[in-house]
Specification:
The structure holds 2 protein chains of 2 kinds. By secondary structure, chain A is mainly β. In chain A, a hairpin with a 3-residue loop joins strand 28 and strand 29. Chain A is globular, with a radius of gyration of 27 Å. The N terminus of chain A is likely disordered. Chain B has 2 helices and 17 strands. The chains are: A mainly beta, B mainly beta. At the A-B interface, strand 44, strand 45, strand 49 and strand 50 of A face helix 1, strand 1, strand 4, strand 11 and strand 15 of B.
Chain lengths: 788, 281
């Protein structure tokens, strides 16, 4: 536990060593030319992310970036290039490289029945050959096959079934990565931070799968271009829209419907996509036997939109946005919350080897709570967090041995922690406002991915991050008992506090002939924003607050080692990874903390350290008939926080040592697929009463040490069956019908346990388990129309 | 008050959850002395109950601590409390004419006949703070809230602006105390009212679904407003929060903090009162 500083200096030294010796072998003066271009889907024109370009003769290659661009620089010669992407037909090209080439290719998607294809994926050995570990990429098609709660397919729910990722509670959108807290995950939607990914208290995430193309989770080995969170990055990219033809996709489910329209504005150059979703479960509330629910309204809606314009081969502009709201109201009060994000991005290729990407990013999370005007208790309460950011990223494909990336970003955060006031003439409330505060978060990074010899690849990078609190702001000063003594008020524009951190990132790969490999990585990460969330699941009212003179930035160091091996022509990928993570200045809250509308919030915070470790086993299948994954994770995570649990270490709320996920999809025929997933996790740690005291006629519990007990183990099976309409080229209208059952064997998994005093005999106490879902069957109808 | 509204909203969100009684095996813990008592600014007999803690599922009345020697000191005078039924009740009472004075700090001292978790005496102190004058109260019925409507009881009083004040509210229907257990009592700070005239602030919410707690026209209702210390305010809030565990908004369970020394549990409180009455229309 006390190894942090030495581990850090060891890796930092190693990093410097490599950095200064790194470029020596890159100087290669023979004649070299570049092959670059963009790889897209033949039917929709969508860029393909992570498609591979393999040079047969050299047994090396390139991978397309998130915009579908690639670049390869080779010496003069004749080469065979193999372009491939899972689920698409492979293309092989011969080229006589005597000049620079631009090769834009359209790959054709395979029909659902994969039998017609021989899997030519000798090159699809990324799992083994890429110097990247602790990551998991999923395209939306994989996610769409996973059986889901109420039939509503969800990105976050899919992520929660990966090794090393734990759900924070039944049905919740919160997740813990390798023992980290839920607020240690950076969730990006087209580069904009999503501060609250939950709809309907977390039963759904804010990501509408019809609008999403690709999802990548970094559990460790976080590349230097990302920063700001300790534990993970979840990078979600939206569809660009079909640039070839108009398409309408939709779905009608039991509680929500979706509709997506996309198409070209200028064929092959400019496209748009608009996607909307709304739940209507509240429409059925009047039918409920519980009359108290009759005048309740609870729903959410969201809207995704994107415009994509390819000006020419070297310039492309994207505009994308998200808008979502949850609304809950009854006769008494109402509450709404939601995110909005907007991104403007310019992709520019300076040369065939130097690609760039400039973005302007806006994000806003807000909530509002209130009672209708006209009463004595009428009030209105708003809180929000707005971000305005600029970002520039560069990729320089120097040669087949070196890929250099560098860039910078600045985000201006504007916090409005809470502003509550009485409304109307009769109100009795005065105005209570927690002062706004502001901060700049800056990052500058550089990294190189370098091949050394035939088997060894090293990836090294450094990120310099900085957080500056800027005025206007009010800073309270606290004594050793966390009592505010006085405060300092700073004027607008004053930079009154600065934190900076160096974050080295290092990855090593030793590849045994592309069949199996060993990898190791180290990453240091800094986090300057955190969530004031005291409960395990969280509410929409949880606010984000920044590092400040009172709150130091959180720091994590993670090391990971892994063994990777592929089987059966890369259709079976396996890996074992072990990790250890040390976290400093971790945030927790004092007992019975008051986090709502509290201008002395920082006095409620207690900090300390946390550490976690584990081993993750993963088998991922990509056979023609069956695909999915099976994983087992053993992990532990602990915290030691000042003043909490008598300053003694305790299991973190997400410490669930044994974890199994099975996610499988089986293609029975062209028109029928069946999917199932089974999850198992050790019960979450919990604090139970061991004694009772009687005070004021009430039995008051006397508790055990923190998290000394556990709920029962959690396990659940979900199954689904999808039936597809006939698939024929040129068909305008296709549909599928999906039947799914959540919690198929109706296990009453514990959500919480309450200890209650009996109403009739006040001397009697009993334990009562709360569970959220029994067996839940649902049906969803999806349709697809195009004007081919 | 907003905290209450937030809780009502969030509870409504999870109305669909299911519950079932289960068996949980719990460990045992050592015995603590539990102190439960108060004195007020009105003339009267005040009680301090001494009990022992027990295992959580013991399910019988907690053991009483009898034959203790109990005194209260106001900085100058010491008052002796006598056990109501010597050697049996574990309830210690002041003389009939006891009156608490605003501005004084009262210290309870208990000497135990035998040690509890190694300690033979405990102390607990509380300042007796002034409460603002309660001008009047009223009651409103809101038929649109909840299943069968909600009655609210509102108060009128000037909130003093110079410091943070904490209030305890007790409610009487036709002369009977309705807030008869600690978790039914209502506490509030002055966050939303500091220094302003509290012109009809709702303090009591009565669910009209339940006959045993609601009111109807013709009832005489009385509100008791007490000025309490921050420590007592926190204590009552913690007792209320310790009674439920809802993953949406409950923090991790933790032991409540009382003001009893030497490892004792519970609270000895001192407070001043102001009353107002009305007949429900």
């Amino acid at each position: 536990m006390h190894m942090k500083p030495s581990a850090f200096s060891f890796f930092f030294g190693f990093f410097l060593l490599i950095f200064f010796s790194g470029f020596s072998e890159t100087v290669d003066k023979s004649t070299r030319f570049s092959i670059s271009g963009k790889i897209t889907d033949k039917h929709s024109g969508e860029a393909l992310v992570g498609a591979t370009i393999f040079v047969k003769e050299l047994k090396t290659g390139a991978v397309t970036d998130v915009y579908g661009n690639y670049s390869l620089t080779l010496t003069t010669g004749k080469y065979s290039l193999i372009y491939s992407y899972v689920g698409y037909k492979t293309i092989e090209n011969s080229i006589d490289l005597t000049r620079d080439f631009r090769i834009n290719l359209e790959l054709e998607p395979l029909l659902r029945d994969l039998k017609e294809v021989e899997i030519t994926s000798e090159k699809n050995d990324k799992n083994v050959a890429k110097p990247e570990m602790s990551t998991f990429r999923m395209d939306i098609k994989t996610i769409q096959r996973i059986p889901a709660l109420f039939g509503e397919v969800d990105v976050i729910k899919a992520i929660q079934m990966l090794p090393g990722v734990q759900s924070v509670g039944e049905g919740s959108s919160g997740f813990s990565v390798r023992g980290g807290a839920p607020d240690q995950n950076l969730i990006l939607l087209d580069e904009a931070t999503v501060y609250n990914a939950s709809h309907l208290m977390g039963f759904f995430s804010v990501f509408n799968n019809d609008a999403i193309k690709d999802v990548k989770l970094y559990k460790g080995d976080i590349p230097a271009n990302y920063g700001g969170r300790l534990s993970s990055v979840l990078d979600i990219r939206m569809n660009e829209g079909n640039s070839k033809k108009f398409e309408v996709n939709g779905g009608i489910g039991l509680i929500a419907s979706r509709l997506t329209i996309e198409g070209p504005i200028l064929k092959d150059r400019c496209s748009f996509v608009v996607s909307g979703r709304r739940t209507y479960a509240d429409i059925f509330l009047p039918l409920s036997s519980n009359k108290a629910l009759h005048n309740n309204r609870l729903y959410f809606y969201d809207l995704n939109a994107k415009i994509n314009y390819r000006i020419n081969d070297n310039n492309q502009i994207f505009l994308s946005g998200y808008f979502g709201r949850d609304v809950f109201k009854n006769g008494f009060a109402s509450m709404k919350w939601g995110n909005e994000t907007a991104t403007i991005r310019w992709n520019h290729l300076f040369t065939k080897q130097l690609f760039s990407n400039f973005s302007l990013i806006y994000s806003n999370y807000l909530y509002n709570l209130g009672t209708p005007a006209g009463n004595n208790n009428s009030f209105d309460w708003t809180s929000n967090l707005r971000d305005l950011g600029v970002k520039g990223d560069f990729s320089y494909y120097l040669n087949t041995k070196n890929t250099i990336r560098f860039g910078a970003s600045v985000i201006y955060h504007m916090f409005n922690p809470g502003d509550a006031k009485g409304i109307g003439e009769k109100t009795v409330f005065t105005n209570v406002k927690v002062p706004n505060n502001y901060g700049f978060e800056t990052g500058v990074f550089g990294s190189n991915e370098q091949k050394i010899g035939d088997h060894f690849t090293v990836k090294y990078g450094l990120r310099l991050s900085m957080f500056q609190n800027t005025g206007p702001g009010t800073v309270f000063h606290y004594d050793s008992a966390y009592k505010a003594t006085d405060s300092t008020v700073y004027k607008a524009g004053v930079l009154y506090n600065t934190y900076a951190g160096l974050e080295p990132r290092l990855g090593l790969l030793y590849d045994f002939n592309s069949k199996h490999s060993i990898k190791a990585s180290y990453a240091r990460t800094y986090q300057y924003l955190q969530l004031a969330q005291n409960s395990t699941v969280g509410t929409p009212l949880d606010i984000w607050f920044p590092a400040s003179p009172n709150i130091k930035p959180q720091i994590a160091d993670q090391v990971a080692f892994g063994y990777f091996r592929n089987f059966r022509r890369n259709t079976i990928e396996t890996s074992v990874e072990g990790y250890y993570k040390w976290m400093q200045n971790v945030v927790d809250f004092k007992d019975f903390a008051d986090l709502l509308l509290n201008n002395k919030l920082e006095g409620e915070i207690r900090t300390g350290k946390a550490w976690s470790y584990g081993v993750e086993f993963l088998v991922r299948l990509n056979e023609s008939k069956i695909n999915g994954w099976v994983s087992y994770t053993w992990s532990r995570t602990f915290r030691q926080i000042h003043e909490i649990n008598g300053d003694n270490p305790y299991p973190a709320p997400y410490d669930k040592p044994n974890n199994v996920s099975v996610v499988l999809n089986y293609v029975i025929s062209k028109r029928l697929t069946v999917s199932a997933n089974w999850v198992y996790a050790t019960g979450a740690p919990v604090t139970f009463p061991t004694g009772r005291a009687e005070i004021g006629g009430k039995i008051v519990p006397i508790y055990s040490d923190r998290n000394q007990y556990r709920y029962e183990d959690y396990h659940r099976l979900d199954v689904s069956l999808s039936f597809y309409s006939k698939e024929k080229p040129g068909r305008k209208f296709t549909w599928d019908l999906n039947f799914s059952v959540y919690n198929a064997y109706n296990r009453h998994n514990t959500w919480s346990i309450n200890f209650t005093q009996d109403n009739v005999d006040p001397n009697t106490t009993y334990a009562e388990k709360v569970y959220l879902f029994g067996i839940i069957p649902s049906v969803t109808f999806n349709f697809h129309f195009n004007n081919d | 008050m907003t905290r209450k509204i937030v809780h009502i909203l969030l509870l409504a969100l999870m109305a669909a959850a299911c519950t079932e009684k289960i068996n949980v095996k719990l460990d045992t813990t050592y015995t603590r002395l539990v102190v439960d008592g108060n004195i007020e600014s009105d003339t009267g007999v005040y009680q301090v109950a001494l009990t022992k803690s027990a295992d959580y599922f013991s399910n019988v009345p907690v053991p009483r601590v009898v034959n203790a020697s109990v005194t209260i000191n106001d900085g100058i005078n010491t008052f002796i409390l006598r056990e109501s039924r010597k050697g049996i009740s574990g309830i210690y009472e002041t003389d009939a004419g006891f009156i608490g004075h605003i501005g004084k700090t009262y210290t309870l001292h208990v000497d135990l006949p035998e040690a509890i978790s190694g300690k033979t005496s405990v102390e607990a102190s509380s300042a007796l703070l002034q409460v603002t004058h309660l001008d009047s109260i009223g009651a409103d019925f809101h038929p649109e809230w909840g299943k069968k409507g909600i009655w609210t009881v509102k108060l009128y009083a000037q909130e003093p602006g110079n410091e943070t004040n904490y209030y305890l509210f007790n409610f009487y229907r036709n002369g009977i105390l309705m807030t008869d257990t600690l978790t039914k009592k209502v506490v509030s700070d002055d966050k939303f009212y500091n220094g302003s005239y509290m012109n009809g602030v709702d303090v009591i919410y009565l669910n009209n679904e339940h006959k045993w707690e609601t009111i109807s026209p013709g009832d005489t209702i009385m509100l008791q407003m007490s000025g309490i210390t921050k420590e007592y305010y926190d204590f009552i809030n913690e007792v209320v929060q310790s009674g439920f565990n809802i993953p949406f908004f409950s923090g991790p369970p933790a032991n409540i903090k009382g003001n009893v020394s030497n490892g004792g549990v519970g609270f000895f409180a001192a407070y001043s009162n102001s009353y107002a009455k009305t007949v429900v229309k």
